[in-house]
Structures are given as C-alpha cells and as structure tokens.
Amino acid sequence: MSHPPAPRTVEELTITSNDEVVTVRQKVRATAIELGFSLVDQTKVVTAASELARNTLVHAGGGQANITIVQNGARRGIRLVFSDNGPGIPDRQLALTDGWSSGGGLGLGLSGSRRLMDEFVLESEPGRGTVVTVTKWTR
Amino acid sequence: MDRVPILKIGDVLIVSIQGDLDDQSVLTLQEDLADRVVATGAIGVIIDITAVEIVDSFVGRMLSTIAGMSRMLDAETIVVGMRPAVAITLVELGLSLGGLRTALDLEKGVALLSRHGTQGTSDLSAVGL
Ligand SMILES: Nc1ncnc2c1ncn2[C@@H]1O[C@H](COP(=O)(O)OP(=O)(O)OP(=O)(O)O)[C@@H](O)[C@H]1O
Ligand SMILES: [Mg+2]
C-alpha cells in the first residue's frame, strides 16, 4: 500500500495589513489556477479567502494564512488555514449564523465561506485565538 | 493604496474599477463618490466592475452603500459588467445586493439612465482626484 502524498505547503503568509489581505487573494488565486480549478471555483475559493483573511485582520488584529495543496486519491485540493492569537470566538454557533456580526459587518464572512468551500472547520477558544481551516477539491 | 478615477460624462459619474483594491481604497472610493455626486449634482452613477475578479462582503457592502447614498442625493446607481462567476459566487456567499440596479455592460447602463431623463452629451471630462 502506498502512502498518500504529504500535503505540500505553497505559501505561508502573514496578515497584518490591508495590502497583505490582497496578497493572500492573489496567492490563493495563483494556486487555484495551478490546480486547474474552474473559473467559478477559483472565484469561490478566492472570495472565501478574502473573507477569512479580513476576519483575521479585523477581528484578531492580524495572524497568518497558510496555503496547502492536498491530495485525496486522484483528487487534488486547496487547503487554507487562517490562524491568529486574537480574542477568539465565544459562541461559534452564533458567529456562523448568517447575518450575525459583533461589529458593523454583514455577518456573511464565516457562513458564506462555509458555503463556498467543500470543507470548513472553525476552532476557537476565547482568549487564545482562532483557526479556520477550509478545503476545496477539484472536480 | 490606489485611488480610483471618477469620470463625468454629462450628468453621469462613471467609475471603472481596475484590479484588486484593498479595503482602504474601497472606502476612499466610496467617500470620493459621495463628494463628487454632491459637487456635480450628478443624476446617475455607473460603476463598471468588468475587470473585478471577486466581489466579497466588503466590496458588496460598498456597492450597496453607494447606491443608498446616491439615492438620497437624488442620483441612481447602476453596476455594470459583473462577471458570471462573480454573480454565482455572490449568491452562494449570501449577498443579495437588494436595491442595486445592474446592467450587462456600460452601454446598457447608460441607456438605463437615459430612460430616466438623462441627456447624453459628449462632454467628457476626466476628473483628477
Ligand atoms: N478570527 C476571528 N477572531 C475573532 N472573532 C472572529 C474571527 N472571525 C470572525 N469572528 C467573529 O465572528 C463574527 C462573524 O464573522 P463574519 O465574517 O461572518 O461577519 P463579520 O466579519 O462581522 O462581517 P462581514 O460579513 O463583513 O464579514 C464576527 O463579527 C466576529 O465577532
Ligand atoms: Mg467577516
């Protein structure tokens, strides 16, 4: 039996400014193109990345984005991990509700990203930080 | 930060967003447009997003805010040139963009405004902001 190939990390980016949110979008786009995603799926992945990168900057004061290429059998995918050491999310259920925002946002970033991606995992502990891991597979 | 130029043709302000704007540039455009609508008494605003590859909640909110703001200043906003992939993604993101008028391209956008009483003129002046 052959082992599945190890995930390959393509980019490790810091998110500390609006400019770096733009950089995250561009690197995610480049990776999605490299993986052969359709234009619609590229757009979905980049939009989700934009939402999650902005959350990291706005709600946690900055953090990190990792872009990884993953493989499952014949299918390849893109995995994005957004992590921060910010205030965390006290009520994850509430945060994932369409339209709920602790600030003046539309409250669509988390719930919308969950719809746009194939897999979505939100880990958070108040006072310790937040990790959002999302994956999309090629069709 | 990039500053997006605002053109004035007759009574209409036209903005063509090029490339990937950071959030601060998006907010600056929103404020610049409000100022220009008041300063020029424009009756219409056309925002061309043909070159825009993604519209997320931040840009979506900016478009709605501009539409609401210009409506209060007696101008109508029309968003033109939305890519199909962007439209599909917006729906899944959950952004309804209610109240926002759209047209397929610039020409159709201008035609929409004309029907609302604009006189199309050839007075094209690039407004350096
Ligand atoms: N990385 C994070 N750290 C701390 N809190 C977060 C983080 N990400 C999201 N949140 C919390 O979850 C809420 C919902 O996030 P979501 O992105 O859905 O909406 P929003 O950012 O408030 O508005 P928008 O629709 O403009 O993105 C936020 O208001 C915030 O309270
Ligand atoms: Mg958000």
UniProtKB/TrEMBL annotation, chain A:
Domain Histidine kinase/HSP90-like ATPase: 40-139
Keyword Kinase: yes
UniProt KW Kinase keyword: yes
UniProt xrefs under InterPro entries: Anti-sigma-factor_SerPK, HATPase_C_sf, HATPase_dom
Superkingdom in the source lineage: Bacteria
Gene3D superfamilies assigned: Histidine kinase-like ATPase, C-terminal domain
Protein keywords: Kinase, Serine/threonine-protein kinase, Transferase
CDD domains named in the record: HATPase_RsbT-like (cd16934)
Pfam families in alphabetical order: HATPase_c
PANTHER family: ANTI-SIGMA-F FACTOR RSBW (PTHR35526:SF3), ANTI-SIGMA-F FACTOR RSBW-RELATED (PTHR35526)
Record protein name field: Anti-sigma regulatory factor
Automatic annotation (TrEMBL), chain B:
UniProt cross-references to Gene3D superfamilies, sorted A to Z: STAS domain
Domain STAS as annotated: residue spans: 2-113
InterPro entries: Bact_StressResp_Reg, STAS_dom, STAS_dom_sf
Protein name: STAS domain-containing protein
Species this protein is from: Sphaerisporangium corydalis
Upper classification of the organism: Bacteria, Bacillati, Actinomycetota, Actinomycetes, Streptosporangiales
